[in-house]
Amino acid sequence: MKPFAYHQPDQLPDAAKLLSSIEDSKLVAGGMTLIPTLKQRLASPVALVDLSRLENLRGITDDGATITIGAMTPHAVVAASKLLQTKIPGLAALASMIGDPAVRSRGTIGGSVANNDPAADYPAGVLGLGATIVTSMREIAADKFFLGLFETALEPGEIITAIRFPVPLRAGYAKLKAPASRYALVGVFVAKFTDGVRVAVTGAGAGVFRVAPMEAALSGNFGPSAIAAIKIDTDGLTSDIHAEADYRAHLVTVMAKRAVDAALS
Amino acid sequence: MGNVIGIGAAPKRKEDQRFLTGRGNYVSDIKRPGMTAGVFVRSPHGHAVLRAIDKSAALAAPGVIAILTGDDVADDGLGSLPCGWGITDAKGVPMKEPPFPMLAQDKVRFVGDMVAFVVAETPEQADEAAELLKVDYEVLPSVVGVLEAVRLDAPQLFADVPNNICCDWELGDKAAVEAAFKKAAHVAKLSLVNNRLIGNPMEPRAAIAEYEPGTDRFTLWTTSQFPHVVRFLMGALVLNIPQHKLRVVAPDVGGGFGVKQFHYGEEAVITWAARRVRRPVKWVASRSEGFVSDRHGRDHVTEAELALDETGKFLAFRVKTLANMGGYLSTFGPNIPTNLYGPLLGGVYTTPAIYCNVKVVFTNTVPVDAYRGAGRPEATFVLERIVDVAASEMGIDRVEIRRRNMIPKEAYPYQTPVLVQYDSGDPMGCLDGALVAADVKNFGIRKAASASKGKFRGLGYSTYVEACGLAPSRFAGRLGARGGLYESATVRVHPTGQVTVMIGTHNHGQGHETTFAQIVSEKLGVAFENVDIVFGDTDRVQFGMGTYGSRSLVVGGAALSKATDKVIAKGKKIAAHLLEAAEVDIQFESGKFSVAGTDRGKTFEEIAGAAYVPHDYPLEVLEPGLEEQAYYDPVNFTYPGGCHIAEVEVDPETGTVTLLNYTAVDDVGTVINPMIVEGQLHGGIVQGVGQALFENAVYDEGSGQLLSGSLMDYCMPRADHLPMMKVATHSTLCTHTPMGVKGCGEVGTIGSPAAIINAVVDALSHLGVTHVDMPATPNRIWRLLQNASLPVAAE
Ligand SMILES: Cc1cc2nc3c(=O)[nH]c(=O)nc-3n(C[C@H](O)[C@H](O)[C@H](O)COP(=O)(O)OP(=O)(O)OC[C@H]3O[C@@H](n4cnc5c(N)ncnc54)[C@H](O)[C@@H]3O)c2cc1C
């Protein structure tokens, strides 16, 4: 690890100011992704701005038609939230499937969404539910937020403060864990709203994406059989030592069916 | 006063008090005054010419004390890292043994090969400077797979090793095997890969070296399973340090599994550097560094053929293997896929003729050496897989074909056609026990239940034997060992009757401090708590060979038993003198020396006290003191084995294999501590589960990059991958070890991969699947099912 300055502001504007005024500074949330990259000397920011003292960035609030999760809320808190287990059980389930207990108690939803790892779970939930990413500067719709491999619509100096989720009629998540990392080899989030169904896939390609034919089929008939025959094209899907592209394509259909089953149960 | 806790009892492990309370003392816990930090600069390329190293920028970095390279090694006239075994080919030609410099000279041969060592005031400064070191490489194509490496047009690692073949080794009667194949009613064939593994002990490797100019003495603290052997190899053969000037300490070590039973270049570089900079030097590997420098295991490509008569009796077995050695010969490297592999191909069967040919091959990968089981899991996997293939092809039940070929209990001692003679065993008894314990008779009901959920359930057997307790020195010497394989123990009885044992084996998780204390407690009748076991320090312990090959109890325990007998013998002399009786009339029982047929006696403590207060001693026949030493060299290997039964369920939609039940009934000889034996079996089985289902070291052909170079990509088995296991022992006593022990450290790892893969194949056999390579990952199973559903493969 290379030396860096460390700041722990307790007001959001201070954090934003530090971040925009110090060139090559970086936010640290749970540190589950950032700290290993520092240790391996893959990143060497001159300063870290720690978000852990920003109390307003923590917690889950029920706004009626939507639920808002603060960016600094750890996965374990989302997984255990009674509110989410009742209103969006698919999202609580998703959080419970991330990594291991240590990762879940440190890693945060804001960090995960900002990082946009192509195999991370939250991007599927955020895109699948059509959530809104609330930042220190603006609000960004999920459909406009995830731009590909580790890329998002965040501007330099922009801080995610919360994610606002519309409450669906039903939602479910299914994931085949990569055996070593436990990230998603393929994960599919399915959400049914009064005006239609959204299907978001993570792990399969360079970034989270929606599957229009499945959304159409499920909007007509919300059951696993509706999508069993829908095959995903292997173009743009990832092939690596854990899974080849055609296997990932196959898994998208399998996991989508299981996500629908989970949503129905 | 505590109690005697003897053989067969299961006290809690003595060492766990310090481990569980965070008071272990590992190498990385050690700090020395004036300590400096070292980091290794390693090759990022699989294969390259080392053109030049420019140290100037790195030397100018803050805190840098020294930078050492291969040129400095050459200037100081230091030796090459030695290989402990010299094998020969069929014509008696010695293996090719190119030098293994501790820092690369001229060329690098694997990603992770050491190029330079940077010493600085702090680890951070050493890291900074290492980044500034300019190394000019001319990158060459790499070859990482054995099949590719032996091609005529393959990149050549060494100018004088044609086709990268280190040795073309063979064993067995080739002509007899050919004759048997000619008259066979059926020949089963199988091609398989034994996947490359990375041990990943919990504690990464680490070392600290210190040089004292005043006495010209060196101390090396290192994460080693065999400190005396490191002292010998490094002192005598690499650094030219006299043995009496070199102390090697292996304190608490957090797991070894073979990974720490080699002499590594890092140890030599650090010790050498400590003298050059005249300050202690410390290095602790990162996990990533471990992936590219800890010796790897397995990595075979094999073709096997089994000849059978019409009743399913095995007539002959022929095995051809290409074994990956990596870029250089490691300490035991060439011994593992040859001497620890071929002799095990008889298994528990009466196969009369066996021939084995192994081409030992260099590639641009981390050197391959022993990893828990070492050679024997590979042999067991080939044999137990092909037995299943033969059974299925001939329409014979898999258990039945094993029974028809098994060595009956009465036939022991049994001479195999591949050198080894099994002294004792009862494979049929283990099989019968396992069939009951695994509830095989109700398997059909469980299979139907899985089928109703759309899952395929399978059952797999492995009836196996291994050779451990390494090793009879005479036998090993004939096979090419360059050292002996005995073990040593000293029993020091203090004037108060408490006992300190110095033993040449090394405890790094196996529970020796407990088991060995039980042996002494039982034999001397002293309280368990009054016995301490000392190991891992060449200044405190007499020469010993260390711990590997399930040898500690078998060979070290035997030395301990012998030394304890000597203590008793001397105690009898002392008692005879004190009790004014003839020595032959003195009996020793339950901690008491007494005169036969009388009530006169002395306690062990009284005798110990007298030994150190020899006021009235017949000094011409009796020396003061009560301390005895013994060396023990075994007359044969020991042959633990047993029957493992795995039950798996395959999800055909995702290809995921779930291990549902695991049963092991093993013959490990006398059990000293059943709790520890159970723990060893659990751990061993889990490592076999890892190989069968999860672990795979993958290199990129061409670039030589390790693609599975972190725990995010290399899957170690975890608790939630495992069912509760049923383990039991069905022991016959070893006929040649003092206590009848056989060893249990590796059996789990040796027996399990075949059982699991046999279960996976069984689950899929209705689809025409006849073999699954390890690890049976979801992708691999799904691919097989895709192909199986094609009409050609499904017939
Ligand atoms: C062993 C292991 C297993 C894992 N398994 C999974 C898994 O199965 N599924 C999964 O989805 N994830 C997994 N993760 C990732 C984990 O879930 C974390 O979510 C992830 O590391 C990022 O969250 P964090 O809070 O740790 O962020 P950090 O590591 O602190 O930061 C990550 C990045 O996001 C930026 N950032 C952080 N917070 C904000 C913010 N509020 N606004 C803008 N930028 C911000 C940081 O600057 C940094 O670039 C795993 C991680 C580990 C170490």
Written account of the structure:
The complex is a heterodimer of chains A (265) and B (795). With 265 residues, chain A is of the alpha+beta class. Chain A is 34% helix and 25% strand. In chain A, the strands form four sheets. In chain A, strands 4-5-10-6-7 form a five-stranded antiparallel sheet. A four-stranded antiparallel sheet of chain A has the order 11-12-13-14, with helices on both faces. Chain A has a three-stranded parallel sheet with strand order 1-3-2, covered by helices on one side. The radius of gyration of chain A is 18 Å and the shape is globular. Chain A starts with a strand and ends with a helix. Chain B folds into three domains: 16-22 and 486-632, 2-Layer Sandwich (Aldehyde Oxidoreductase, domain 4), CATH 3.30.365.10; 31-140 and 206-255 and 260-291, Aldehyde oxidase/xanthine dehydrogenase, a/b hammerhead (Aldehyde Oxidoreductase, domain 3, Alpha-Beta Complex), CATH 3.90.1170; 296-470 and 636-787, Aldehyde Oxidoreductase, domain 4. Chain B is globular, with a radius of gyration of 28 Å. In chain B, helix 10 runs parallel beside helix 19 (747-764), helix 15 (512-524) runs parallel beside helix 16 and helix 18 packs across helix 19 (747-764). At the A-B interface, helix 11 of A face helix 4 and helix 20 of B.
Small ligands present = flavin-adenine dinucleotide
Distance between the termini of chain B: 73 Å
Stated plainly, the CATH topology of the domain at 170-264 in chain A is called: Enolase-like, domain 1
Percentage of residues assigned to helices of chain B: 25-40%
Radius of gyration of chain B, CA atoms, in whole angstroms: 28 Å
Chain-averaged pLDDT of chain A? 97
Strand content of chain B: 15-25%
Strand content of chain A: 15-25%
Number of helices of chain A: 11
Strand order of the largest sheet of chain B: 3-5-1-12-9-10-11
Name the CATH homologous superfamily of the largest domain in chain B. Aldehyde oxidase/xanthine dehydrogenase, molybdopterin binding domain
Q: How would you name the oligomeric state of the polypeptide chains in this document?
A: heterodimer
How many whole angstroms does the radius of gyration of chain A measure? 18 Å
Number of strands of chain A: 14
